[in-house]
């Protein structure tokens, strides 16, 4: 009987350690991580390819559910817009940058994502499909 108690007392802490929750990599705990980095954007406006340009996306340090997309609509590196991230989707509420109002949504799949948005300069609204790839 003593041997059984000793054996259980010895194995119980080991069993508890093996069942402890493992720390997950940041990529699995923060859905924004997959959107960050340097991207090449291939853009179509009204279904017509309009070129490629670079974009850098960083985490929004002020909001743990948002990212900051740089050079949106190829407006330059200082043109930054915030986007809400939920799983594999992006949501850009209407924001005005350099006199252009931008709003849209995006979806991440594989190693890239597609952002569909409108760009309105006050007189013309353009429908844009931007594919971000690394």
Q: What is the overall shape?
A: globular
Distance between the termini: 64 Å
CATH topology assignment: Lipocalin
Radius of gyration, in angstroms, nearest whole number: 23 Å
Please give a handful of descriptors for the protein shown:
Lipocalin, 8 strands, globular
Give an overview of the whole structure:
The chain has 134 residues and is an alpha+beta fold. An eight-stranded antiparallel barrel has the order 1-2-3-4-5-6-7-8. The N and C termini lie far apart (64 Å). The chain has one domain (26-133): Lipocalin (Beta Barrel), CATH 2.40.128. It is 16% helix and 52% strand.
Q: Strands, helices and their partners?
A:
Layout (H helix, E strand, L loop, with lengths): L1 H17 L7 H4 L7 E9 L2 E12 L6 E5 L9 E7 L2 E9 L2 E10 L2 E9 L4 E9 L1
Antiparallel strand pairs: 1-2, 1-8, 2-3, 3-4, 4-5, 5-6, 6-7, 7-8
Summed up:
With 134 residues, this protein is of the alpha+beta class. Helix content is 16%, strand content 52%. The chain has one domain: Lipocalin (Beta Barrel).
């Amino acid at each position: 009987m003593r041997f059984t108690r000793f054996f259980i007392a010895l194995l119980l802490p080991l069993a508890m350690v093996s069942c402890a929750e493992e720390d997950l990599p940041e990529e699995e705990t923060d859905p924004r991580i997959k959107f960050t980095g340097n991207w090449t954007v291939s853009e179509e406006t009204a279904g017509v390819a309009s070129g490629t340009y670079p974009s850098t996306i960083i985490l929004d340090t002020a909001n743990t559910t948002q990212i900051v997309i740089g050079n949106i609509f190829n407006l330059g590196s200082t043109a930054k817009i915030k986007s809400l991230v939920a799983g594999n989707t992006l949501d850009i509420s209407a924001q005005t940058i350099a006199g252009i109002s931008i709003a849209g949504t995006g979806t991440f799949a594989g190693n890239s994502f597609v952002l569909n948005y409108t760009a309105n300069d006050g007189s013309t609204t353009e429908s844009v499909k931007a594919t971000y790839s690394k």
